[in-house]
Amino acid sequence: MTDIEIKRLVTIEVNGRKNTVAVEPRKLLVHLIREDLGLTGTHVGCDTSQCGACTVEIDGQAVKSCTVLAVMADGASITTIEGLAPGGELHPVQAAFHEHHALQCGFCTPGMVMSVRQLLKDHPNPGETEIRHGLAGNICRCTGYHNIVRAVQSLATTGAPQ
Amino acid sequence: MNKPTFPYIGQPLKRREDFKLLTGKGRYVDDIRLPGMLHMAVLRSPHAHALVNTIDAAAAKAAPGVRLVLSGKDLTGKIGPIVPNWVIPGTKVPYRPVVATDRVRFVGECVAVVVADSMAQAYDAVGLIDVDYEVLPAVVDETAAVADGAPQLHENVPGNITTIFKIGGGDYQMAARQADQVIRLRVVNNRLIPTCMETRSILASPEPDGTLTVYIGSQVPHMHRRWIAETAGIPEHLLRIIAPDIGGGFGAKMHLYPEDLLCPWLARELAAPVKWWESRSESHQSTSHGRAHTESIEVAFRNDGTILGIKVDTLGNVGAYLSNMASGGPTANTIPYGTGTYKIPNYQATSRVVVTNTVPVDAYRGYGRPEGAYIAERAIDAVARHLGLDQVEVRRKNFLQRTDFPYRPYGSASLVYDSGNYQGLMDKALAAFRYGERRKECETLRREGIYRGIGVAAYTHMCGMAPSRRLALIGFDRGGWESARVSIDSSGRATVYSGSMSQGHGHVTSLSQIAADVLQIPVENIDVVEGDTRQVQAGHGTFNSRSMAVGGSSLHVCAQRIVAKARKIAAGMLEVGETDISYAEGAFGVPGTDIAPVTFAKVARMAYTGHKLPDDVTPGLDETVFYDPTGMGSPSGVHLAYVEVDPETGVVDIIDYVAVDDVGTLINPRLAAGQIHGGVVQGIAQALYEEVSYDPDNGQLLTGSLLDYAVPRAEHVPNITSLFQETPSPTNPIGVKGIGESGSIAAPPCMVHAVLDALSPFGITHLDMPMTPPRVWAAVQAMRDGGSR
To answer: B674 and A142 in contact by Cβ < 8 A?
Structure first.
């Protein structure tokens, strides 16, 4: 059997744009996003779904895109980090990260930003415990989380953006 | 643009590099895809110690998309061996092939390499290689490895000891005789995995002109160029190393790994770009680990708490081979610092560097200095506890005083602590922590059965290894200098080329602050280039908290040369003497006259037209400096932790953490605090959560993925109060000392002391890291059962 024969067609909308891609059934969504669509802002930081660097939104819900096969996302609408500031104006979560020095190496940042969006949807005005718990799916090795928590707190007090 | 506010140094500017990283436009190695790119995958040893009898690669070679399968024997004589870059005199260096030939010595060692059209095909083919191993007895623990009858790893390393290093001063034996008491401790500095969120990745691409571009997340691009050239047989001038955005380094990305050699060599062999990307689980068994020491400590003291002497024996586990800096870490980087911030005249320390059947151990955030500080701090805390004296007062009693600097600990010929004010640090930390109030609170709560404790730790160390000629004495085969180039274009905009290498540190912001103050132009007019050996003249990269002290100083001196030349050009333009000119905020003027000032931009234009230059001035405004420091800066700090321990579950809850650090002049307080936050959390992680586990019987790595290795999440760590005291270093022109490693040095002992303090009602006097709930609970149970520890 050749590669072509075992590939499946997947149609997904990513950041408002429809794409149809032929993928191996075993391909993870994160690899479709990175390799087939060239959207490399979504990162791979582990292989056991621990780190959260690959977090994207699928149909409005934050999901670790390494936990989803590309074929399972057929027909879905996906937002990646590249879709948050299309006009060059930072999304409020991104702006808060900049303001509060909530990133250093930047590798966990896209996934962290996507998770914060979900956190603020679920808890528009989270307390510190809720924030820390809400970020439990994302690992950051640089910031010690301190300034990430500050950034989220700043959004909680100024109202939750979507 | 807002009007610039000078000086920039000391301002908490927001980072200039954030935008691309926030919007998904960062460019890490694995984000780079080249046409015709092939993928490399590595078959790794599943055994800790085994003979490799035969390798059958026929099925792998026949698999779809496979271009090449090579074993160690195929590569013998072509690339390698890998040699360390730091070899302490007297060290026995084991032979380390790039890919194992007849014997493997750790789980994860490269056994064969596959190149295929896709990554999936490469991994599929790796699974088809059949290796016949003959398993040998393995040893993973440093203490077991030096025992009689232990399995031996290398013929030229009898007893598994590569290096014996001694340092000291005074007379410890005399101190022990004069002391009122002597106590002994055995402390373990647990093995860690640095865990950069971006794993290692390499892409090597042959260029039409015969050169080879190597994209690699390297902390030390120019060093990698040299090492790859020397080891893979590729002339250095044909190699261009590009380090793009790096997802954290922490010391792990500054060594020469097998894959760093295989990708470039294979790319040339196959005349195609070859990429390797390390999976996280692979990283746990292929990227260097950190720490892995056992220290036996003896401390001699008077009953008033005065420490008279310390004796230390260190066993530093370096894994199966000597990685890049491995002979230097447990030796020259560790035991010289065993007296910490204290005036302890009698010191006797020996370190033995031990090979075991484990992943090689090398630099990790602080490399040796955390282990050294742990010796001093655990010792003094044990003395305080033993005597029933206040932990703060015992430290104050033994601290070096402000007037003692520059200070040579125990009369050392090689170590100088340049400056410091430890009492000031302690005052500031105690006030911010509300020490007195909390001490009372602890006592009150204990009566209610709530076990809270306060931990204290003080540290000093030395940053920015230099000068170059001193590095020669300790076998460190590189210089201590850094280079900077400042190039002003004809519009007056500056580009800074630095040999330092940011991995999240924010050099675009901090280096431009340094340059802006000297050049007197806005930071927005300054670009910073790092991480490309074709663009950046030379360099040593970023490690040892050296970038601001050495790279920054180099830039400072270089920018001064630019201003000196610009001043000459301005004098010609204004037709006045050079000494009559003043320069500030981008304008050369003549004070006390009505001569109209000339701007820096106009001077730059003149430099490039060359129309009206003084006779002794050449055209252009472009300078390069190689700056070799005369000494090293010594950061210091006092950290305090407040914890509550639940004796029924063993869970440690961190209530508060205060860090007061003296890292000399602060370039950017916002970024500095960020370094402390991150370093402290890595230190807390060592103290409470993280530990690499090996099965002692067969050498299997038990913490083989992030499922088993406990990197802390946001909910596992506290808020951190980061404060600073600024005692400028006299060793460099900006007075900066170094900050990156402070947090991970101070936090481990601070946390251990806090937990021991909380558990003092149970009579517990010792715990090793990580102080996980089972370990803490077991210690409490042992004391409740009437046992003694």
So the answer is: yes
CA B108 to chain A, closest CA, distance in angstroms equals 16
Residue of A nearest to B31 (CA): A40
The CA distance from B252 to A49, in Å, is 22
CB contact under 8 A, A103 and B18: yes
* Model pTM above 0.95: yes
Beta strands in B136-211 (DSSP E): 161-169, 181-189, 201-206
Find out whether B143 and B91 touch, Cβ atoms under 8 Å.
no
Among candidate residues B600, B541, B591, the one with its CA nearest the CA of residue B567: B600
Give strand pairing partners of B212.
B206, B239
Pick among 3.40.30.10, 3.30.365.10, 3.40.50.300, 1.10.3210.10: CATH of B368-463+633-784: 3.30.365.10
For chain B, helix, strand, coil in percent to 5 are: 30, 25, 45
| Pure H helices in A15-145 | 29-31, 92-99, 109-122, 128-134
**Cα-based distances in Å from B115 to A44, B41, B128, B273, B389:** 21, 7, 13, 11, 64
Architecture per CATH, B32-136+198-247+253-286:
Alpha-Beta Complex (3.90)
Element (H or E) spanning B312, and its range?
Answer: strand B307-317
Structure tokens at B602: 């106009």
Q: In the CATH scheme, what is the code of domain B18-25+481-627?
A: 3.30.365.10
Q: Is the pLDDT of residue B786 over 90?
A: no
- For A:68-107, CB contacts with B below 8 A are 80-82, 84-85, 90, 94, 97-99, 101, 103-107
Which two structure tokens, joined as six digits, stand for B70?
């090579």
Q: At what angle do helices B369-387 and B742-758 cross, to 10 degrees?
A: 30
Segment A127-141 mean pLDDT? 97
Say whether pLDDT at A80 is over 90.
Answer: yes
- Preceding peptide of B81 cis, ω within 30°: yes
**Which CATH class name applies to A3-83?**
alpha beta
pLDDT at B546 over 90: yes
Give the bridge partners for A22, in sequence order: A9
Q: Where are the domains of chain A?
A: 3-83, 92-157
**Per-residue pLDDT reduced to its tens digit, B509-543:** 999 999 999 999 999 999 999 999 999 999 999 99
Amino acid at B262: L
What are B673's two structure tokens? Answer: 């605090």
Subunit contact B714:A103, Cβ cutoff 8 A: no
HEC string of B37-103 equals: CEEEEEEECCCCCEEEEEEECHHHHHCCCEEEEEEHHHHCCCCCCCCCCECCCCCCCCCCCCCCCCE
The yes-or-no answer to whether B18-25+481-627 and B32-136+198-247+253-286 have a common fold is: no
Estimate the crossing angle of helix B669-688 against helix A146-157, to 10 degrees: 120
Is domain A92-157 in CATH 3.40.50.1000, yes or no?
no
- How does DSSP classify residue B580? G
The strands making up B181-189's β-sheet, listed across from edge to edge, are B161-169, B346-354, B307-317, B293-301, B181-189
